[in-house]
Specification:
By secondary structure, this protein is α/β, with parallel strands linked by helices. Helices cover 36% and strands 20% of the residues. It is globular and about 45 Å long.
Length: 193
């Protein structure tokens, strides 16, 4: 019996840049890891949907809670005490820690708030906003994405696409990596989907 539901994944709109990402990574023998929060593993799943992903994809972690961030992403007591919400700096550090632990060429980091609700003070979360970083040993690039909506499922997909687009932009040379060890939030690229 054939399934009656459409189980297509990833979305058709993702496929062209997933193919491009795969080609760019494979052509340079580069490797990749992912440290994602509000995308819930969708960035990793999208990359793994590409035939031959084992040539470049080393691993991914959904570091949604502070416990998982401490265990898998190198968070310290200082990170926990100083945490006020996702920032480009925080996501860059998250990706840098995982890149180092996984010994890969690139790591994507993502953290935001999908909505519809967000924690209150002292945390600064904006429903529909995420921070994304791509980190390599050569530097980093960040992007802040704000969808303007508080729909959890739509934001998860929009944030996933934005993370993949930033990776593609870095790999293609359309976005240059910054050379400082951590980003200056004023230089982060803001994107409205």
């Amino acid at each position: 019996m054939e399934p009656t539901e459409d189980y297509s994944f990833p979305p058709v709109s993702f496929k062209p840049f997933l193919t491009e990402i795969s080609g760019l990574l494979r052509s340079t023998s580069s490797t990749l890891a992912v440290a994602e929060t509000t995308t819930g593993g969708l960035v990793s799943a999208s990359l793994l949907s590409v035939s031959g992903a084992s040539k470049f994809f080393v691993g991914g972690a959904t570091v949604y809670t502070t416990k998982s961030r401490r265990t898998w992403a190198g968070w310290t007591d200082e990170n926990l005490v100083n945490y006020i919400g996702p920032t480009p700096e925080l996501v860059t550090e998250l990706a840098a820690n995982v890149r180092e632990q996984m010994d890969v060429t690139y790591c994507i980091g993502e953290s935001g708030a999908t909505g519809p609700t967000v924690p209150g003070p002292p945390f600064v979360h904006i429903a529909g906003q995420t921070c994304i970083a791509v980190v390599s040993h050569e530097g980093f690039a960040t992007r802040v994405v704000n969808t303007g909506v508080a729909d959890r499922e739509k934001n998860m997909m929009a944030f996933t696409k934005a993370a993949l687009v930033l990776l593609r932009d870095v790999l293609a040379g359309d976005v240059k990596l910054e050379q400082q060890c951590r980003p200056d939030s004023k230089s982060s690229e803001a994107t409205k989907l």
